[in-house]
Amino acid sequence: MEKRRLIIIGSGPAGYTAGIYSARAGLQPLIISGQQPGGQLTTTTEVENWPGEVDGILGVELMDKLKRQAVKFGAEIIDAFVDQLDLSTKPFKLKVNQEEYETDALIIATGASARWLGIAGEDKLKGRGVSACATCDGFFFRDKKVVMVGGGDTAMEEANFLTRFAESVTVLVRRDELRASRIMQERALANPKIKFMYFTEAKELIGEEKLEKVRVINNQTNEEQDVPSDGFFVTIGHKPNTDFLTGQVELDAKGYIKNIPGTSKTNVAGVFACGDVIDPWYRQAITSAGTGCWAALDAERWLSINE
Ligand code: NDP
Questions:
Q1: 227 contact partners, CB below 8 Å, separation of at least 6
Q2: CB neighbours of 230 closer than 8 A, spacing ≥ 6?
């Protein structure tokens, strides 16, 4: 059994930023990096909106820099997955790859995962025309044809955003109506660059080096057609990575951790949360890094009073 003052679960911008701040404060945090070390940014290509990186930076490179910065100040990182945790006792207990750890404070930065369709060609063409984030990748589709799937607020917002660049945006909606709020629907429906195909689902993404066309199917008539497209955006929602926390900290109806507003504090004293696991709205690397900083400062203050 190894005892720590602070353990951070997750290694996206939130986890590493919490690591940088808490390591600089001398807490020697242990970062447990999870199933996808570096988080969602490692699945994108160029990141052009990280402040200070004037010429853009590859997602993988940015995460490597954050990691090295955390290590430089004394954070220890293990590429492992938390199998079990018990937040009902103090110190908190974690089981990681059969090893047991105890910690006085815990920061949860496990992020969220974009939901994908799981259709043929999707995995192969990710990063080659296929994306789950218009804010991240929309810029690359200037004067191009884009297809997206989803009928919620995210889809409407991202469709509108994409029309700043793309020549046309075709939205596939599996029912005969949108789920999005009225105002978001009205805005998208009024946009001359956006076309809707109702009762329509994507069946296959086709292309060799990059996406060339989307095979769609009308789920009422079973009629199929190929829609030529340079980009394909999946905007059917995100899922916070909190399955392992059920019954341990308070979650909202969609599984996001409920924080005390304006702080990183959860309902369990000594447990803090940051990044996409608390944020269904902004989901940006920079906002995650910001709340990662909150969590480190909140944990540091909490430890100074309670240790
Ligand atoms: P939602 O769950 O609201 O919508 C998901 C959409 O994707 C629905 O249209 C759903 O269809 C569709 N969908 C889900 N699975 C599939 C599938 N396998 N194939 C095809 N279509 C599928 O997710 P969002 O990300 O849009 O929104 C999440 C939350 O964030 C919401 O509460 C939303 O209001 C909020 N939000 C608010 C914004 C704002 O106010 N500015 C901006 C962005 C998000 P169906 O309806 O048939 O289930």
A1: 147, 170, 213, 214, 215, 216
A2: 129, 141, 144, 145, 146, 210, 211
Type of residue found at 48: E
Write out the two tokens for 124.
């192969």
Query: In what helix (H) or strand (E) does residue 218 lie, and over which residues does it extend?
Result: strand 213-218
Ligand 1 centroid, distance to 270 Cα (angstroms): 33
**What 3-state class would DSSP assign to 235?**
coil
User: Residue 67 has what pLDDT?
Assistant: 97
Give Cα separations from 291 to 65, 84, 258, 277 (angstroms).
18, 25, 14, 11
Kindly state if the Cβ of 56 falls inside 6 Å of ligand 1. no
| Threshold 0.85, pTM exceeds | no
Tens of pLDDT, residues 262-275: 999 999 999 999 99
- Give the nearest ligand 1 atom to 117 CA: 18
In sign, the C-alpha dihedral spanning 280, 281, 284, 288 is negative
Nearest CA to ligand 1 atom 16: 236
Ligand 1 site-directed mutation target among 158, 177, 179, 256, most atoms within 8 Å of CB: 179
The Cα 65–Cα 80 span in angstroms is: 20
In the block, residue with structure tokens 């999946």: 234
237 lines ligand 1 (CB under 6 A): yes
Residue 64: both structure tokens together: 């490597």
Q: What are the structural domains, with CATH classification, of the chain?
A: 2-113+238-306 (3.50.50.60), 116-234 (3.50.50.60)
Q: Which of 122, 133, 153 has most ligand 1 atoms within 8 Å of its beta carbon, as the pocket-test mutant? A: 153
In this prediction, residue 40 has a pLDDT band, given cuts at 50, 70 and 90, of: confident
Residue 60, classed as helix, strand or coil, is helix
Q: Could you check whether the bond before residue 51 is cis, i.e. omega within 30 degrees of 0?
A: no
Q: Determine contact, residues 61/47, Cβ cutoff 8 Å.
A: no
Residue 102: how many CA atoms within 13 Å on its side-chain side? 7
